[in-house]
Specification:
The protein is of the alpha/beta class. 36% of the residues lie in helices and 19% in strands. The protein has 18 helices and 23 strands. The strands form six sheets. The chain has a six-stranded mixed sheet, sandwiched between helices. A six-stranded mixed sheet has the order 18-23-22-21-19-20. Strands 4-3-2-5-6 form a five-stranded parallel sheet, with helices on both faces. Helix 1 links the parallel strand 2 and strand 3 (30-33).
């Protein structure tokens, strides 16, 4: 254990520090503070000496240098065995460091902040104090968050001003987490400012948002780590209005629903099952879109997650009431709709609080020994640039369904085939090892509804068999990227069946 006799206090965020300092003083702890913090404490009746008085060196460069002094760092870094050396120098040991840093992340989040202002909020001395104290954690307590103040004071009061080794260890972990996150924010700001799409190194600083009961399966441990700077239009940023805490699988599916439902500005609904859209539709009303999406595959929709890109109204809520739905994510809920949906005990209701839109962010995938990173940009779909490769030309309605199908396909695991008609899916074949199997599954899911539909493929047809399968199901038109060495065979098959086929040149693989 360590007896806390002297504390250095230098905080940018003074919330809670007055009460904490009073508690330290009541325990006989001598407080030394930076000039600004000392002034604040003194104005509120707490006696504190200044670091300048202790070092004999005034703050210089407008406060840029105030704690960077050998006497300060020696007092923190001295081990128990070295305290006698301090005494020989006429110095004494510091047992506690209480520091929080300039608000860099808060500063850069402000609209129009300049680079000069941002860099002025890069803390130097504070980070050094924290690291020194955390390095010497078997003798020095380091506090970096107001949430730590009360528990530390309570322990000191119980133990006559002492803190235990386990507390010192946990405080040091929190300190290095804090400084590493701070450095990460600065690094990420600097590389983004340069306009580079991919960072020169990957630095993440996500605090644990919540522990989860388990992962994908009950035998797996899991947690959800949140990006502290995540916008509201994310799973981390939106609000759980009703239902049990989210599970691992809920979070993955709701994220897929959010991304998919953000694909269109028009009123749309997506039904997600195991991260794949099993139904997707646009509609003149949200109720119409939901029912059309569900009709695409009612069997798979059991126990699904739903993404709705408009405020949920009472009519949509009534349409959903009879169905077993695990969760809904939407911009908002009308008051009566929310009240009705809350009568479903186990449903999770998520609100983003702002309109859906595509957010550009890096996509990451963990692999053994590393991380894959890619941008999330998607090219604009220009129907006028589609290439007609068959004798039969598609109708305007079919071209609209082609555009719809391409947008849906990029949210379906590869190999994927999407059958669409009237701006809604009628069958989806997802995650298959061969494209023809994806065609068979999409046709099976659609049944008679495949007749006259448009097929969107996430990649080219390596053989004509997928085209033959589509024709047998009644598909009238195909949109695909093209680019296979057997494109001519696929085109010939389409001509034989009297189908239209266009090449869009856009592959939408999703692994």
């Amino acid at each position: 254990m360590v007896q806390v006799r002297r504390a250095i206090v230098s905080v940018a965020d003074k919330d809670g520090i007055l009460e904490f300092a009073r508690g330290l003083a009541s325990l006989g702890v001598e407080i030394r503070a930076s000039d600004g913090t000392a002034k604040y404490l003194a104005e509120n009746g707490v006696k504190a000496g200044t670091i300048s008085e202790y070092t004999g060196q005034k703050e210089v460069l407008g406060g840029r240098v105030k704690t960077l002094h050998p006497r300060i760092f020696a007092s923190i870094l001295a081990t128990r065995q070295q305290e006698s050396e301090l005494r020989d120098l006429g110095w004494d040991a510091t047992d506690m460091v209480v520091v929080n840093l300039y608000p860099f992340e808060e500063t850069i989040s402000r609209q129009g902040v300049t680079f000069e202002v941002a860099m002025e909020n890069v803390d130097i001395g504070g980070v050094s104090l924290i690291r020194a104290a955390a390095k010497n954690a078997d003798r020095v307590a380091v506090l970096v968050a107001k949430e730590q103040y009360q528990s530390v004071l309570e322990e000191m009061k119980r133990n006559g001003g002492k803190l235990g080794d386990e507390t010192l260890r946990k405080l040091a972990i929190a300190a290095f987490e804090y400084t590493s996150g701070y450095d990460t924010a600065i690094f990420n700001y600097l590389w983004r400012r340069g306009g580079d799409a991919i960072p020169p190194a990957l630095r993440l600083a996500y605090p644990m948002g919540s522990g989860l009961r388990y992962g994908e399966n009950p035998y797996q441990k899991a947690a959800f780590y949140r990006d502290a700077r995540a916008p509201r239009l994310t799973i981390a940023g939106c609000e759980l209005l009703h239902g049990k805490p989210l599970s691992f699988n809920n979070i993955v599916d709701l994220d897929a629903a959010l991304h998919a439902a953000s694909e269109f500005e028009e009123t749309s609904a997506v039904i997600i099952k195991h991260t794949n859209p099993c139904g997707f539709a646009l509609g003149s009303t949200l109720r119409e879109a939901y029912l059309a999406a569900r009709e695409s595959d009612k069997i798979s929709a059991y126990g699904c997650v739903v993404g709705l890109n408009k405020t949920v109204d009472i009519e949509t809520a009534k349409a959903m009431k009879p169905h077993f739905v695990e969760g809904i994510i939407a911009p908002d809920y009308a008051e009566d709709a929310l009240a009705l949906l809350k009568t479903k005990k186990d449903i999770r209701l998520m609100r983003t609080g702002e309109p859906f839109r595509q957010i550009k962010e890096l996509q990451m995938m963990k692999v053994s020994g590393g991380m894959l990173v890619q941008t999330s940009d998607f090219p604009e779909i220009r129907p006028e640039e589609f290439k007609l490769v068959t004798k039969v030309k598609p109708s305007e309605e079919q071209i609209r369904d082609m555009v719809f199908g391409i947008k849906v396909s990029r949210h379906v695991k590869s190999n994927s085939i999407v059958l669409a008609k009237g701006l809604k899916t009628v069958g989806v074949g997802a995650g298959q090892m061969s494209r023809v199997d994806a065609c068979h599954i999409a046709a099976y899911k659609a049944g008679p509804k495949a007749m006259g539909s448009v097929l969107a493929s996430d990649a080219f047809f390596p053989f004509r068999d997928g085209v033959d399968t589509a024709a047998e199901a009644g598909v009238a038109a195909i949109i695909q990227p093209g680019g296979s060495i057997r494109d001519a065979e696929a085109i010939a098959a389409a001509d034989e069946h009297g189908m239209s086929m266009m090449f869009c040149g856009i592959r939408t693989f999703k692994h």
